[in-house]
From TrEMBL:
Catalysed transformations (reactions): tRNA(His) + L-histidine + ATP = L-histidyl-tRNA(His) + AMP + diphosphate + H(+)
Enzyme class: ligase
EC number: 6.1.1.21
Protein name as annotated: Histidine--tRNA ligase
Quaternary assembly: Homodimer.
Lineage summary: Bacteria, Pseudomonadati, Pseudomonadota, Gammaproteobacteria, Cellvibrionales
Length: 428
């Protein structure tokens, strides 16, 4: 019979990878609570309209990347392609926006893209959104939080912060008009995608990957020259706060979000370690979004980062926590009596020393094969019960890693001293 494989672009995360995910998730969880952010969990499926209105009709996501289907009541539903729209929907629906809110979320997102390294059809994001604060100190906090994450994960040297302000809606409209005039005169030099965007979403031309288009843009009007006073002042303040906190950045005037309810700050963290999929985190201010989705005029700012790319980055930088052992202790035994004693003693250990990870050998086998499994588990010590140990009321403790072997070769430990012996060993 033919085997069934996972859907293209939707990957299993296998047991040898999950420790890295758990490590990143633990660091992020601590970081978020350290900045006073509360976790929110939204459904994976939302009404399609939410994304049409919340992400925007003329984005790649809505134009060509959504998993949209009708359910049995013929409602059009979509697997969430990102988290901000759902988070804003939930915040409005549950009346969370009467006060300032700092929220974060994590989970799978879905986009129908061409799968490649760092680009899946099911991928995972961590995102944060802050509502109710319009001033740039909030933007700065978001960026400082992400900067700390790179430090905590040991990849700070390999990421760079790109920063821009896209101003108010009016400022952007004026800029858009000027840009379109410039590009229309040179339309035949634009790539096909960009020609199409000249009508639908001209600002997106700025992040075209086409080198000829980028060269053409060198002579184009610059967004910075069109910024309104308030946006200029806020951007200057944001830069001041980042300078004060010692977080370096590059101003990239071509960094944009092409939607009208995004405004002022946009930022991206990029790395040169992941080829074309170099953006690990993107964010910005969206003071118009809550209103766009039917709420009051509440300002917001947020970011989202891709966890697959983070795992790849840690791998590329070789900063993943060392060989991930499944166990601290591996328990082997020979003979029925010995196994009875081993099982009982192991359970007692788990009662009292629950922080230790203990794997009990199951399925029998020779001394040699059991000890092989013990070595493979990555455990630091093996506890060995055989006839001699049962007779003496002891257990043999054997070091499995080279760095311990000088101190502990093999020693017989009386059963009533076992817990204390292990505590001492694992405390040091
Ligand atoms: P890209 O330009 O790489 O397509 P994007 O602008 O579509 O990114 P956002 O919507 O801003 O990305 O999502 C935030 C982050 O989520 C990205 O910076 C990236 O790290 C991650 N991400 C986005 N799409 C994918 C994907 N298909 N697979 C894996 N990670 C992704
Ligand atoms: Mg994309």
């Amino acid at each position: 019979m033919s085997t069934i494989r996972a859907v293209r672009g939707m990957n299993d995360i296998l047991p040898d990878e999950t420790p890295y995910w758990q490590y990143i998730e633990t660091v992020i969880r601590q970081l978020m609570s350290g900045y006073g952010y509360s976790e929110i969990r939204m459904p994976i499926v939302e009404r399609t309209d939410l994304f049409r209105r919340g992400v925007g009709e003329v984005t790649d996501i809505v134009e060509k990347e959504m998993y949209t289907f009708e359910d049995r009541s013929e409602d059009s539903l979509t697997l969430r392609p990102e988290g901000t729209a759902g988070c804003v929907r939930a915040a409005i629906q549950h009346g969370l926006l009467n006060m300032a809110q700092r929220l974060w979320y994590t989970g799978p997102m879905f986009r129908y893209e061409r799968p490649q390294k760092g680009r899946q059809r099911q991928f995972h994001q961590v995102g944060a959104e802050a509502f109710g604060i319009a001033s740039p100190d909030m933007d700065a906090e978001m960026i400082l939080l992400t900067a700390r994450l790179w430090r905590d994960l040991g990849v700070a040297e390999h990421v760079e912060l790109q920063l821009n302000s896209i101003g108010s809606a009016d400022a952007r409209q004026a800029y858009k008009d000027a840009l379109v005039v410039y590009l229309r005169e040179r339309a035949e030099q634009l790539d096909e995608d960009s020609q199409r965007r000249l009508d639908s979403n001209p600002l997106r031309i700025l992040d075209s990957k086409n080198p000829d288009t980028q060269a053409l843009l060198d002579g184009a009007p610059a967004l910075g020259d069109f910024l309104d006073e308030e946006s200029q002042a806020d951007f200057a303040r944001l830069c001041e706060l980042l300078d004060a906190a010692g977080v370096p950045y590059t101003v990239n005037q071509r960094l944009v979000r092409g939607l009208d309810y995004y405004n002022k700050t946009v930022f991206e963290w990029v790395t040169d370690q992941l080829g074309a999929q170099g953006t690990v985190c993107g964010g910005g201010r969206y003071d118009g979004l809550v209103e766009q989705l039917g709420g009051k005029a509440v300002p917001g700012v947020g970011f989202a980062m891709g966890l697959e790319r983070l795992v790849l980055l840690l791998e590329a930088c070789d900063t993943l926590p060392g060989a991930n052992a499944q166990a601290d202790i591996y328990v082997v035994s020979f003979g029925d009596d010995a196994q009875r004693q081993a099982v009982a003693a192991t359970e007692r250990l788990r009662d009292s020393a629950s922080a230790l990870r203990i794997v009990q050998h199951t399925g029998g086998g020779s001394f040699k094969s059991q000890m092989k499994k013990a070595d493979k588990s990555g455990a630091r010590v093996a506890l060995i019960w055989g006839e001699d140990e049962v007779a003496a009321g002891t257990v043999s403790l054997k070091a499995l890693r080279a760095e311990d072997k000088e101190q502990i070769t093999q020693q017989a430990v009386p059963l009533d001293e076992l817990e204390q012996t292990l505590r001492t060993l694992f405390a040091g």
